[in-house]
Amino acid sequence: MATTSLLLNLTPKAYNFRHPRPKRTNPILARTSSSPSSSTFSSGAVTVKEKSSFPGKPEADVVVIGSGIAGLCCGGLLARYEEDVIVLESHDLPGGAAHSFDIKGFKFDSGPSLFSGFQSRGPQANPLAQVLDALDERIPCVSYDSWMVYVPEGEFLSRIGPTEFFKDLEKHASPNAVREWQILLSYLLLCYCSHMEDETLQQDAVLPLSAAAMALPPLSIRGDFGVLSTAAARYTPSLLKSFIEMGPKGALGATKLLRPFSEIVDSLGLKDPFIRNWIDLLAFLLAGVKSNGILSAEMIYMFAEWYKPGCCLEYPLHGSAAIVEALVRGLQKFGGRLSLGSHVGQIVVENGRATGVNNASMWDTVKLLPSDVIPKSYADRVNTTPQCESFMHLHLGFDAEGIREDLGIHHIVVNDWDRGVDADQNVVLISIPSVLSPDLAPPGKHVLHAYLPGTEPYDLWKGLDRRSTEYKNLKSQRSEVMWKAVERAVGSGFSREKCEVKLVGSPLTHERFLRRNRGTYGPAIEAGKGSFPGHSSPIPQLYCCGDSTFPGIGVPAVAASGAIVANSLVSVSQHSQLLDAIGI
């Protein structure tokens, strides 16, 4: 059978945003398959900064740009489908925003650290867990069930599960807050709360929306009409069962799954300030927007994982690097390849087509494409899409001597509810993973990552020289809120002066190392006002995954996006065989 070729022109290696003149080029041919059982790819190209050698043969059918969670999930599944795939990563470490790094024996997470659902299996499993299952990979985890919360009302150890949070509400909020939380859990999770006194409320409120939200396994979704076979027809019985269990009122409520979660909150008459603030905080931690901007389905999925009986949180032994390593193992196990230090400078489009999957943000994707091939409507949409702000990071390595032994892994500090959880300098998240995985720090030490979660204004930093005194002073000023939060969380035994590693990251750091436009957290697309783009692009055979595509921001969401693209590039038969193989 005839094949066409995709030429990848290798130009000089660089770790900044400037594109120096080519010193030499080495061709990599990406063959396209014309097999009826797989997608047919036409010629196209990307330019890659100089790479001394690539793993395996210098050719591939599918090129994935970026080794973030989405890119690795996509590449790994394509390899599992027996596609010839290579993942190109600009950094010298894989993982994108989830990569880890080592300084003086302290192993730091650079991004997400609050996880759940790794051990889940079956149709309702976490999307990342389903991908790992498909790749026959497991991640050893430590289970726990709480995090420390510091809010204006006080500080408390918040436990997940259907009943424990009521105790916190009784102490730090009000009886009305307890009642409203009962109403919400009952509506979402079919949780009968033993001390609900209003029988009518029990009967009317109990609607198992979580069953509807989780009826379709994430791995069954694809981006073409084949979804009618792999998802709709395959899981019709479970969907019908969910709707029958919900009854007419529940079925009507299911129509809200693609609406803002705040509409559900409003419809239930939830007005207690603490409950509204807490819901906003959970939504913001999950997707970078408050409850009026997040899809109800996404929030309900989170509630099902965090507030059902027997639930737990999970931290991977050896840190978030263990997730990335498992995905890389899965990719390579099935013949896929990963090339580090391979920065893609441009996606070359020939004859109107390109071949590849792009894990970059929508704004960075536009930069990679020749301007003359980008439709104006697409460019306008990208340029007018609102962005979440960027991050401040504080990475510390310090001695555990004098630190209390009951120090927990996670701490959340909210300084002022009235300013909103999305206000700058207001919410600080702290992770001390060496509490659960001591190997992340030298013996007798702790490793800590504090950050402002997508709330740091990029414009404060725009144009600053990272070597200037002005930049250093601004880092000192804007990191102070994190230092104070750490001192509050770790306690009196902590001393800034005794930290053996002190690293402050700014939006410019985020932009530089992750190559993300303005160091952004991702698109600030509010449910009900807009929707995350699908996975195709205006360039034929160029697909996109990651947090600029459906279903959005967050580890489960980006894992799902990578899976959707991989599924879309193979036949319905191959997709169905994979679902059969992993028992969903």
Total E-strand runs: 20
Q: What is the share of helical residues?
A: 25-40%
CATH superfamily of the largest domain, please? Answer: FAD/NAD(P)-binding domain
Low-confidence stretches: 1-44, 191-207
Largest sheet: 7 strands, mixed
Main sheet: which strands, in order across?
A: 10-9-16-17-18-15-19
Describe the structure.
This protein is α/β, with parallel strands linked by helices and 584 residues long. The model is unreliable at 1-44 and 191-207 (pLDDT under 50). 34% of the residues lie in helices and 18% in strands. The strands form 5 sheets. Strands 10-9-16-17-18-15-19 form a 7-stranded mixed β-sheet. The chain has a 5-stranded parallel β-sheet with strand order 12-5-4-14-20, covered by helices on one side.
Concise summary:
It comes from Cannabis sativa (Hemp). Helices cover 34% and strands 18% of the residues. With 584 residues, it is α/β, with parallel strands linked by helices.
Tags for this entry?
alpha/beta, 18 helices, 18% strand, single chain, FAD/NAD(P)-binding domain, 584 residues, 5-stranded parallel beta sheet, 34% helix
Helices, strands, pairings?
Blueprint: E1 5-11, E2 27-31, E3 45-49, E4 62-65, H1 69-80, E5 85-88, E6 100-103, E7 106-109, H2 127-134, E8 141-144, E9 146-151, E10 154-159, H3 164-172, H4 175-189, H5 199-205, H6 209-213, H7 227-233, H8 236-254, H9 261-267, H10 273-287, H11 296-306, E11 313-316, H12 321-333, E12 337-339, E13 344-348, E14 356-358, H13 362-368, H14 376-384, E15 390-399, E16 410-414, E17 427-431, E18 445-456, H15 469-490, E19 501-505, H16 507-514, E20 542-544, H17 555-568, H18 572-581
Parallel strand pairs: 1-3, 4-5, 4-14, 5-12, 9-16, 14-20
Antiparallel strand pairs: 1-2, 3-13, 6-7, 8-11, 9-10, 15-18, 15-19, 16-17, 17-18
Helix pairs in contact: 1-2, 1-12, 1-17
